[in-house]
Amino acid sequence: MADLGWMLLAGYLLGSLSGSLILGRLRGVDIRSMGSGNAGGTNALRSVGWAFALGVVLVDIGKGVAAALLPLLSPLFSEVLPVSLSSAGALCGLAAVAGHVWPVFFGFRGGKGAGTAVGAVAVVAPWCILPLFVVWLVTLIGTGYVGLATVLAGLSLVPSIWLLGPEPLPPILGLTAIALAALLVFTHRSNLARLWRGTENRFEKARLLKPRR
Q1: N or C: which end of the chain has fewer CB within 10 A?
Q2: pTM flag (> 0.85)
Q3: How many CB atoms are closer than 10 A to CB 111?
């Protein structure tokens, strides 16, 4: 049990290594003082440019992958993990997402967790990646709203992990999917509020399906 605790802590610390803030320091900028103020890939793209945003996304996805793979180190420890490797990986991935949202190294002000969540899901539930991407892409090209696309993709994780996953599905995987979906809704609450008020920024270049006038 102690080994799992250390792995969860390591997952959280990995998540706290915010890609946009680390790369931003190398460029002498704080992404949280630009654009929407969010330390995520979308704000990085709008405020700094595509090359910077690509680096941010790769770092954020990569740390989700690394956190979910931490349980593979369990043979190096003396204790046996109290849950399966996939369940432990899901918990470590969730810890990394929490670290991304509330990074200990950056005053607990981080991003919204989507990229890190994708990295973790790619390891512990790879069958969900295609449905998530389809939901995200269809929503984006249909509406132009990145936040809405991310929220709906996150919510689609819950049915995808149960309907497309192995039987029986480890309960921790299902609970982690619910937790990730709820966390993405929470971190995008300002986007949802702006959508409700009709003031949300639209990514027009991505909106391919525009209504005819």
Answers
A1: C
A2: yes
A3: 29
